[in-house]
Specification:
149 residues, seven-stranded mixed β-sheet
Length: 149
């Protein structure tokens, strides 16, 4: 079942995201950061257990970011990630946001979801609001992708 996240989901999201981060698949997130941004998250729950999560974070009047999109390793390949992406895109559409971007190591997956490569220079709001605080800045090895609505 796909739904908006609640407070009780944060520790599960933290576990899913940081397990993937430990394998180099994405950046880690702190519990504090997840609690601060809880309203951005969608989760996919199966038999009472969160097995996937992803967030739509608004960056600017016409720009939002999909963040921390991840599905547990044992549940991948079932379309859950795509459902989370589409939930984020539908919310962006409802909010009249024209462009959704992401930074990722998963180019193939997001390409199948309709995202195309863009230069990070097209995302100055992201660079100066979040990236500047990242331990990988300025040597970021993630790629930027965008999908217009």
């Amino acid at each position: 079942m796909l739904r908006k996240a609640s407070i009780k989901d944060i520790k599960s999201i933290h576990s899913i995201v940081n397990s993937a981060a430990a394998k180099g698949e994405m950046l880690a997130r702190s519990l504090g950061e997840l609690y601060d941004n809880m309203r951005d998250y969608f989760v996919y729950e199966e038999r009472g257990k969160v097995i996937g999560a992803g967030a739509l974070h608004i960056c600017w009047e016409d720009l939002a970011e999909i963040r921390s999109l991840c599905v547990t390793e044992s549940s991948r390949g079932k379309g859950i990630g795509r459902m989370l992406v589409e939930a984020c895109m539908e919310e962006a559409k409802e909010l009249n946001i024209a462009k959704v971007f992401l930074l990722t190591y998963q180019e193939e997956f997001f390409g199948k979801c309709g995202f195309t490569l863009v230069d990070k220079k097209e995302l100055p709001q992201k660079i100066w609001s979040d990236c500047i605080r990242c331990p990988k800045f300025p040597e970021c090895d993630e790629i930027a992708m965008m999908r217009r609505i």
